[in-house]
Here is the input.
Amino acid sequence: LHSVPEIKPELISAQALSKEVESILFLFREADNGVHSEITTTVLCTLFENLVRVLFRELELEEKARQEDQALVRFEQARSDVLKLITNADADGYDRVRKVLTTASLFSLREMLQAVARHLGLGWESYLGDIFKTWKDARNPLVHDTSRAYRTEDEWKELALNESRIAGAINVLLLKLFGYSGMMRASAFEENGYRTL
Here is the structure.
């Protein structure tokens, strides 16, 4: 595995996070085989999601996110209220709804990424919100259902752009974590793909 730059000590006690990031970086480099395919896109989407979850967990952002995002508090209250309403219902449909509500995570990837963005001082509206949409639009069809046999040239181009944007977002998150400031290339395939961190 390649070693990673030092993580800023004020961001976290860095030992556990360093090992996680080191593993993700190794896989990130392995995924970049120079061939743009839906396998590469799926791998990059998975690594992006994993990195966001690792940062959220290791930077211990859950409690702070609860305090900063009242929608999370309202979700918890609504879930509790609905569960109370259907507690005594016996029908199979209600039992299924109860299981879905009981296992529904308070923090979706969107909320985790928003918390990480706030913590690292990255803009949601100006950057990571668009990256989240790119990740979701690229990942969900590939993982769940997409037509593969008759992909158009424009669809292949979009796949390559999505890979570039998601890979750039991984770099942005890691560079901010390491305390980098300055210019960086957030998308290799776009003319305006540079960002200032």
In short: The helical segments are 15-31, 38-58, 62-68, 70-86, 92-103, 109-120, 124-144, 153-177. Residues 15 and 177 are 13 Å apart (CA to CA). Strands lie at 183-185, 194-196.
